[in-house]
Write a structure and sequence with these properties.
By secondary structure, the protein is of the alpha+beta class. It has nine helices and four strands. Belongs to the nitroreductase family.
């Protein structure tokens, strides 16, 4: 933790990226691992993360992102797409993976499987879509922290038209919905925001011990 707070103070939502600098494959793999290890409800990870490298697609997505330059200027564009509706097969696959990973009989998980199915499969579809979308923000949190440790800039973005993203990337047909976007890369020296003090609530206002 000796450098964690320092790195969190260093990071900010970058507005202008240096197009000449690219995130290395090894660093990208580290960021992917951080996302993979993120917490999620029940450990279900009800989302998929698309790493969009195709420049033509990124140009199309820029138009669906209110023209924001980070979409095309950043080294990589990540789209976090939540699963709109979890079905029984998805939960079964989760438990098969659990049994295989932990080398235990899948029958030993029957009680928890039944509990999870009762809790999730009876959820109204609109509520489920909101719930799975929230899980993508936990994954984003891991990305932000890991990237700061590597001195890689990240801009989390909600400023985009989700349905247009879904159409451009063919997400709806896969049962997915664009939940949030993150661009990663390296700040441009002309981005003046990097020189401004970070503005946050004072601890006395943010925290309350009861």
């Amino acid at each position: 933790m000796s450098t964690f707070i320092e790195h969190q103070n260093w990071r900010y939502a970058t507005k202008k990226f240096d197009t000449s600098k690219k995130v290395s494959n090894s660093d990208l793999q580290t960021l992917k691992k951080a996302i993979q290890l993120a917490a999620s409800a029940y450990g279900l990870q009800p989302y998929k993360v698309l790493i969009v490298e195709n420049p033509e697609l990124r140009t199309q997505l820029q138009t669906a992102s209110w023209g924001q330059s980070q979409i095309v200027e950043a080294s990589h564009l990540l789209v976090f797409a939540n699963i709109s509706k979890i079905d029984e097969a998805y939960i079964d696959a989760f438990f098969e993976n659990t049994a295989n990973t932990r080398n235990i009989p899948i029958e030993a998980l029957d009680g928890y499987k039944t509990f999870m199915k009762n809790a999730i499969l009876n959820m109204p579809e609109d509520q489920m879509n909101i719930w799975t979308s929230k899980q993508t923000y936990l994954a984003l949190g891991n990305l932000l922290c890991a990237a700061a440790e590597l001195k890689i800039d990240v801009t989390p973005m909600e400023g985009f038209e989700a349905q247009k993203y879904n159409d451009i990337l063919g997400l709806s047909a896969k049962g997915l919905n664009a939940s949030l976007v993150a661009t990663i890369g390296y700040r441009h020296e002309e981005d003046q925001l990097q020189h401004l003090a970070k503005v946050r609530k004072p601890e006395t206002e943010l925290f309350e011990t009861i």
